[in-house]
Please model this.
Amino acid sequence: MAKILIINTGGTIAMSEDHSTGKVSPNGENPLLSSAHLFHLIGDIHTEDLFNLPSPHMQESHMMQLRQRILTAVEEGYTGVVVTHGTDTLEETAYFLELTTNLSIPIVVTGAMRSSNEIGSDGLANLRSSLIVAASPESKDKGVVVVMNDEVHTATYVTKTHTTNVATFQTPTFGPLGLVSKSEVIYFQRLLKQEYYPIEEVQTGVYLLKAYAGMDGLLLDALCEHHAKGVVIEALGAGNLPPATLPALQRCIEAGIPIVLVSRAFNGVTYDVYDYLGGGKQLRQSGVIFTTGLSGQKARLKLSVLLSSGKSLEEIEKAFAC
Ligand code: ASP
Model:
C-alpha cells in the first residue's frame, strides 16, 4: 500500500471565507488536517503542516526547507509526497523542487482556487486527485508534477493562467502530461529532459524584467549598479528588445551579469531569428542567453539555482539551451 505524506504550506486551500464580509484569510487550525481519513482507501496517508503561508509570502528559504522535508520523507519510507500550496507562486515552488531534487517517488504539488468553506470549493477534490497520482506506480520517475482540476502538469512548464477560475493551471505550448479520470491517473506524455542541481543555499539577487514598446535602459542600469547576480528579461516575440535598452544591456554583460531572455508571449520558445538593432541575432551575439519555453518566473528560479550551484557563464548558457 502506498505511504503518502501530505505537507501543507498554506494558501487558499487552507483558508476560509468570512461569509458576512467575503474576506478570505488563513485559519488558526488548517482544515486539511482533519480530512486525511477521507482518503484511507487510496493509501496510508499522513498529514503535517510545514507552514501556513499565503503563497506570495513564500521565499526561496521556505522552498529549501520544503525540499529538506521531502528528502527526509524519503528516508522515512514514504512512497509519495503531496504538497499543498497557495496557487499564486505554486508553479515556482514546484519548479524549484523539480530542479533541486532527484527522486523516483511521485512529488505532487496542489492547491485550490476556492477556500475550504466556499461553495464549489475545489480543495478536497484537488487533494484527492493528487493522492491518486501520488499513489500510482505510473507516477514514478515523472519528476515533480502539479495536479489541479483533474489534470497532471509538469512543474517545468505549468503556469497559472486565470485569477479566479478553477481551471487556471495550464501548460502552454506543450499541454498536460495526463489526467485523473475518476480514481485513476492516465498519462499521455512525459517530460523528456530532467535536470538536477543539488544546492546548499539559494543565490538571491536575480531579477526579472518585462520588455515593452518604448522600454529604455533605466532598470537595467539600476540592476547593474546594485550588483545584481543575474537578470531574466521577458522579451518581445521570439526574443527581441527595444534599441534603447541596448547600451545598458551591454553594460550589464560587461559587468559579468548573466542576462537570460525568455519571451513575454504565452506560447512558443525564444529563437534568435531577427537581424536588426535589438533583434535576437544581435542579442545573442552580444552575449545574451536564450531559453527554450520557460516562463520568466521559472527562468529566474533556474538562474538562481544555477548560480547557487556555482555554474560558470558558459555552463549557464548550456543549461538554458536544453
Ligand atoms: N493568494 C492565494 C495564495 O497563493 C491564492 C491561492 O492559494 O489560490 O496563497
User: Anything to note?
Assistant: The CA atoms of residues 66 and 239 lie 34 Å apart. Residues 11-12, 54-55, 86-88, 111, 113 surround aspartic acid (CB under 6 Å). The helical segments are 60-75, 90-100, 123-135, 218-225, 246-254, 280-285, 296-308, 313-321.
